[in-house]
Design a protein that fits this description.
The complex is a heterotrimer of chains A (104), B (174) and C (230).
Chain A (H helix, E strand, L loop, with lengths): L3 E2 L4 H8 L7 E4 L5 E3 L4 E4 L3 E4 L6 E8 L2 E5 L3 E2 L11 E5 L2 E2 L7
Parallel strand pairs in A: 7-9
Antiparallel strand pairs in A: 1-4, 2-3, 2-8, 4-5, 5-6, 6-7, 9-10
Chain B lengths: L21 E5 L5 E4 H6 L3 E8 L5 E11 H5 L8 E6 L4 E5 L9 E6 L2 E2 L9 E3 L12 E7 L28
Parallel strand pairs in B: 1-10
Antiparallel strand pairs in B: 1-2, 3-4, 4-7, 5-6, 5-10, 7-8, 7-9
Chain C lengths: L1 E10 L2 E7 L11 E7 L5 E7 L9 E5 L7 H7 L5 E8 L14 E6 L3 H13 L6 E7 L17 E6 L16 H7 L8 E7 H13 L7 E6 L3
Parallel strand pairs in C: 7-8, 7-10, 8-9, 10-11
Antiparallel strand pairs in C: 1-2, 1-6, 2-5, 3-4, 3-6
Classes of the chains: A mainly beta (104), B mainly beta (174), C alpha/beta (230).
Chain lengths: 104, 174, 230
């Protein structure tokens, strides 16, 4: 399966975070590998799946539809990334919408 | 509309060895499992169906061969209402049991007369043509039968829990 | 919205569109834009295209036609001066090279139209008069497929080409796919700490990145941009 680099979803990411975050870095919850967002592996299916280049664990998921976007950052640690507090941005954790923007 | 169906995957393509491949149904009185050659020896059906992807393409008259989920569940003693399909690579998707039974769903291993290739979900994928195609999980390895609905990989992140293309149930709120 | 002010045919399959984008605040070398086209029935398709021009120049996209593509046949064959389309950008802060005073050599590896963002870097380097050593290893199928062919000699950088399918008589460059031997011969040695940017189709990028790591380049110094199918 062909994957792309995190860089390729810079537009989607700036929609969610309000700024370019491809040069931010974060750690994989599974294996601890630290990488720039721009270097993460991106798969496009029903939505966008961002995986760890080292162990393939799911770090982030995005589903953009209509003018809304569902965001799950549950696999990424220490990135400091904060989705915009806007009604069109739904921050998810464990299948539930969460209010807090801090890491669960 | 499209002649080919695009390769869309939530992750790297798994290449399981057929020697180690099993299909397992959990959640009945006991788990029931088939090895690859046992699975291929089950009575199969050829089905010709249209498929509908959320990314708006549809493909008509696709031809598949596989085992009806009815055939699989004959071996399982259960009264559960929901199923969660699980796959190599960790993907899951939820489907009510009544949408998997009554000739509505298959575990398919042949597409257009050829063994299903890994990019398109081989060795076997779930085929639930009356729902959106993300429910037709690639690389499926089994079903977990449940009393309560448990949303799968996409259904926990914005995708509609049921996914009926005729009602355009794509996303939460549709 | 961007308005096409000029089109440049680069190869039979590749065209550059120079754009006027109201409110454009400038871009960095290596960034891209997302182009969105809406069909009459409302169907929308969006794709990313790298910016080819140097920062400070008007945004220019160089687009290769993919025969089964949704957007590229239109952008390469149909668009004329004065046409407008929706775009957002510039996007990206990872696959970029800035003229920031660092002296680390720049090693760029391009497969096909992967040369586009790397060209923006080389044009930027030339425009600001940077003395950072720079080398481009550029793989194309044939001479007819070489994008920016005439400009490659005028970049003030070392350009090494390989033609993988067809080489003209007297060709002085390489005539095979990029491999570890070629990378060893062309790249700056790892102890010179080059900054490496690799752009091209997924398989190309994988092969080059693996080859460079095998030669001792630190993975963290290699930045990649893959592009997939349609």
């Amino acid at each position: 399966m062909i994957h792309l680099d995190g860089n390729s979803i810079g537009g989607l990411l700036s929609d969610v975070f309000g700024r370019d975050v491809t040069d931010a870095s974060g750690r994989c919850r599974e294996c601890g590998a630290e990488n720039f967002v721009g270097a993460l592996h991106v798969y496009r299916a029903a939505g966008v799946v961002v995986r760890c280049p080292s162990c393939s664990a799911v770090l982030m998921r995005f589903v953009a539809a209509r003018d809304e976007v569902w965001v799950d950052l549950g696999g990424l640690l220490g990135s400091g990334l904060e989705p915009l507090r806007e009604t069109r941005v739904h921050v998810m954790h464990g299948g539930e919408v969460v209010d807090g923007r801090a890491e669960p | 509309m499209t002649d080919d169906f695009p390769v869309l995957s939530a992750g790297p393509t798994p290449h399981p060895s057929l020697d180690e491949w099993t299909f397992t149904i959990e959640g009945g009185a006991q788990p029931v499992s088939w090895r690859w050659e046992e699975f291929r020896a089950l009575p199969s059906e050829t089905v010709t169906k249209d498929i509908h992807c959320v990314t708006k393409w549809s493909k008509f008259d696709t031809e598949w061969e596989g085992v009806s989920v009815d055939t699989l569940l004959e071996r399982v003693d259960h009264d559960r209402a929901y199923a969660l399909a699980f796959c190599d690579g960790g993907y899951t998707t939820n489907v009510p049991v009544e949408d998997l039974t009554g000739g509505k769903a298959w575990v398919a291993y042949i597409y257009d007369g050829e063994p299903l290739d890994p990019e398109h979900g081989g060795p076997a994928r779930l085929l639930v043509p009356h729902l959106y195609f993300w429910k037709s999980a690639k690389w499926v390895r089994g079903l977990r039968l449940l009393d309560d609905d448990e949303p799968g990989f996409w259904e926990t992140n914005g995708y509609h829990n049921y996914g009926d293309p005729w009602r355009e149930q794509r996303y939460w709120g549709d | 919205m961007g308005e096409v002010t000029e089109t440049v045919t680069e190869t039979p399959r590749v065209r550059t569109l120079v754009l006027d984008v109201p409110g454009w605040t400038g871009h960095r070398a290596g960034q891209h834009v997302d182009v969105r086209l809406t069909a009459e029935d409302g169907y929308q398709a969006e794709r990313s295209y790298s910016l080819a021009s140097a920062p400070g120049e008007p945004p220019a996209l160089t687009v290769e036609r993919l025969d089964d593509g949704e957007l590229s046949p239109y952008l390469v064959d149909e668009v004329v001066r004065g046409d407008r389309f929706e775009l957002r950008g510039p996007i990206g802060g990872y696959f970029v090279w800035d003229h920031d005073g660092s002296t680390e050599p720049l090693f760029l590896v391009a497969g096909g139209s992967g040369v586009v963002p790397l060209m923006a870097m080389l044009r930027h380097r030339r425009a600001v008069g940077s003395t950072v050593p720079a080398k481009l290893l550029y793989s194309s199928r044939s001479l007819d497929d070489v994008i920016y062919r005439d400009e490659l000699d005028r970049l003030g950088a070392e350009v090494v080409q390989t033609l993988t399918r067809e080489q003209p008589p007297g060709w002085g460059g390489y005539g095979r796919r990029v491999d570890v031997d070629m990378l060893r011969e062309v790249s700056y040695p790892p102890d010179e700490s080059p900054r490496v940017f690799v752009c091209g189709p997924t398989n190309f990028v994988e092969a080059v990145a693996e080859g460079l790591v095998a030669l001792g380049h630190r993975p963290g110094r290699i930045r990649t941009e893959r592009f997939g199918g349609t």
